[in-house]
Amino acid sequence: MAQKDKTKWDKKYNETPSLLEKREPSKKLIEILDKVKGKKTLDVACGAGRNSIYLATKGFDVDAMDISQVALDELDKKGFENISTKLVDLDEYEIPKNSYDLIVMTNFLNRKLIPKLSNALKINGILFIETYMEDKDNEKPPSNPDFLLKKDELKSFFNEEFEVLDYDEFFNESYELYRMKKQAITIKKL
Ligand SMILES: C[S@@+](CC[C@H](N)C(=O)[O-])C[C@H]1O[C@@H](n2cnc3c(N)ncnc32)[C@H](O)[C@@H]1O
């Protein structure tokens, strides 16, 4: 486990408890759910589980993975039988192949993980990624510029074995702390 990342994120959640409070799920994720054919879901770097919770209420069975025990404890407290939390370092964890009907990764970017997520999808499975991208009007500079996507970047990760069902670049919702540009892609494994 990357102890440095774990310590950083546990500290962040302990020092800013508002990050653990109930938060809205991704609007775009809600919009694409009708394209998902099964229930088995992975929420990558789930945090306190805003998306996991929404998906669980819609009947999905969610594996919710994160490096912060503080965030996962908060999610466990909610007591959803169909959310299974797992403390993992996604830099190292081997995600089982051909296993998920839906994989969600929001507000988190690890480029090396994207091919592993593609492998973890079942045939006809859906991968939804939504995170921040470069833009001159972004209100908050990133702690590391590598954490921001370049224009059109998400499309570059997928070959002809995948169909892009939806792609968008847009400014984030007004309830988020800073106005930031985001990129979202929904792909299907053929
Ligand atoms: C900004 S939060 C996003 C949470 C959630 N996906 C959302 O959209 O609200 C980023 C999350 O990534 C997790 N994280 C950071 N590095 C990680 C790693 N190497 N493995 C697993 N999770 C990690 C953090 O603990 C944190 O909960």
For the structure shown, list the relevant keywords.
190 residues, alpha/beta, Rossmann fold, seven-stranded mixed sheet, binds S-adenosylmethionine
Write the layout of secondary structure elements.
Layout: H1 3-15, H2 27-32, E1 40-44, H3 50-57, E2 61-66, H4 69-77, E3 83-87, E4 100-106, H5 113-120, E5 121-132, E6 162-171, E7 181-189
The structure holds S-adenosylmethionine.
Q: What is the molecular shape?
A: globular
What's the CATH topology label? Rossmann fold
Task: Tell me the domain tally.
Answer: 1
Termini gap: 33 Å
**Main CATH class:** Alpha Beta
Would you identify the regions where 5 or more consecutive residues have pLDDT less than 50? Answer: none
How many helices in DSSP terms?
A: 5
How much beta, percentage-wise?
Answer: 25-35%
Order of helices and strands: HHEHEHEEHEEE
Structural class given helices, strands, pairing?
alpha/beta
Task: Explain what you see.
It is built from 5 helices and 7 strands; from the N terminus they run ααβαβαββαβββ. Helix 3 links the parallel strand 1 (40-44) and strand 2. With 190 residues, the protein is an alpha/beta fold. A 7-stranded mixed sheet has the order 3-2-1-4-5-7-6. Bound molecules: S-adenosylmethionine (SAM).
